[in-house]
Amino acid sequence: MGEEVNRERSSGATPVGAAAGPETVPTTIEIAQGSAVVHLAAPKDGGTTLLALLAEEPEIQVPAPCGGHGRCGKCAVLVNPDGPSRPEPSPADLRFLKPFRLAEGYRLACTCPVSGIDRVVAPPRDRSAFVKSEVPHFDAPADVWQEARSEGRFAVAVDIGTTTVASYLFDTESGEVESVVAEMNRQGVFGADVLSRISFSERAPGNLEHLSRAIRAQLTEMIAALAGGRRPSPGMVVVTGNTTMLHLLAGVSPSGIGRAPFTPAFTECRRLPSDELRLGNRGSVILLPSQAGYVGADIMSAAVAVDMDRDPRTTLLVDIGTNGEIALSHGGTVYTCATAAGPAFEGATISSGVGGVAGALSRWSRSGDVFSFDTIAGLPVVGICGSGLLDLVASLLSDEIVDETGRIDPPRDTPAAWQPLLVEVDGAPAVRYAGGYYLTQKDLREVQLAKAAIAAGIEILCAEAGIETASIERLVLTGGFGNHLRSESAVRIGLLPSLPPDRIVTVDNAAGRGAVLTLRASGTLDRIKKLALQARYIELSGHALFQERYVEQMFFPEVDS
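The structure corresponding to this sequence follows.
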């Protein structure tokens, strides 16, 4: 039996991002997604898009990585599947959807008007989307923060990432994490990266509230799932995350972060009463301190979690995501920066890209004439995610199918195994990596843009510290994507500096680990506050060398002779 919900409303006074006419007449649209079925009232005037209508319905989620601007083609839904009457395809529909899909009735939700629509079928939703976060283990004995203990036996640590949200139930008596719940961030329907969400928050009155309500509702459900019916409910909640995510949780406009000089409304540690955010806990909610608009509490807590403020080794911490945050410790100073890597590694700007969902191609390799790949959960391919993308591009480079400029230009002596996979899509060279899925020339450009931003950021931090990348003694990869990639593939495409493999380590969600440490180890909060104040932040947008290094890093490393 499906879950059916009636929403007899016209999405408040005005649907998100739309202007209401004075004489709009409501009509009811049935929306189906998996087992969920809802009925939404929407105006007939055509001034509302399907995506704008769905943005207010928590039961239905349609991905819109570009924030609903018609630039990514990821929000396709099936419109009026049982009837011939459908809206005419928009220019964006014609650009992104194949003719057979248009004929079947697929339209992009961000450009499809609600007028004349009776029923919509959205692609299946998987909240967990293979989001995994391990229960963190610690070698040092627990020295539980007494303030956390005073607010109840159980506390919760949360890491709000742009793409994923991880939560940890912490037992203040045992000093250990009892359970973990991780999900895709439900704000993803409003855009894949922070700039898309900032833009959405400014687009119409009430949009900031929609974003805030989405993450608060999600955290409330996750905390309830962690508690598992325990009474009383958890006490203290400690939250880390990037600066924009913390603003949205607090209901504070992030507009200042979206434009120069990228000034957030707050960076300090905030302690809020439980009734202000209403997350279902009994104690206070602590938002950990950020350093700058794009260097958030997540990188501060991650740096402390891997002891960058104490370990004398030269350490590089890289959180590879839509906003690539980087920290380098050397000679007693921690340097930080953020790079606009964009959502390519999350699959958003790749033609057949997907996030870490079941069926995503996550590994690729060639042995002789045999190609092999793995998919998440072992299901049929539905697209390619970041780790698989790096493997595929690394293999193309090593076999000289793609040259150092990023051009698909196979040599005359192309290995026989590759030849059937080298095709054309829309008149341009492409690589068929599985079934009807292709890596296009434009996709490769997106990879170059993303990897260049992160690689240039690393070089700038090293230059500020007065060292070469070869001097890095420990490279720590973290974040949802960083924890799953093959470091050798990242080095091969030039995303990471070439270092001996034993210097590169991965830490599962170091930011979340730092939030847990705040509860588990007295004094951790003071360490994070101190680091946020004392770390040397490098603003790359105005840095004299950044553009030069960025252009240089657009090239892939040449094949070793």
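The longest strand covers residues 176-184.
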